Amino acid sequence: MSQLETAMAILMQSFDKYACAEGNKCTLTKSELKTLMETELPSFMKNAKDQGEVDKLMKALDHNGDGEVDFNEFVVLVAAMTCVCHDRCPKK
């Protein structure tokens, strides 16, 4: 597999690993999302001031309002964080 294909596979595996901890295996609950972020994105989480930050993130990601984050919503998070971290291009 190419590097991009490998990255995509890791993204899917990471989502599945945390989504299967509780309830629906196709979505992340707030606690599953928090665990994923604390484990897989620790440098982002150390900047979160309190639990309210996770609540805000969950609300922003949950586009369909079902109280959980599905894979499509999760990919939006990863893409947005990737854009924030990518500093090679000038900001518009």
Describe the structure.
With 92 residues, this protein is mainly alpha-helical. The chain is built from five helices and two strands; from the N terminus they run H-E-H-H-H-E-H. The protein has a two-stranded antiparallel ribbon with strand order 1-2. Helix 1 packs across helix 2 (30-40). The longest helix has 17 residues, at 3-19. The model has no long low-confidence stretch (mean pLDDT 83).
Global morphology: globular
Q: What would CATH call the architecture? A: Orthogonal Bundle
Number of E-state strands: 2
What is the total number of structural domains? 1
Question: What characteristics describe this protein?
Answer:
mainly alpha, 2 strands, calcium-dependent protein binding, metal-binding, two-stranded antiparallel sheet, repeat, Recoverin, domain 1
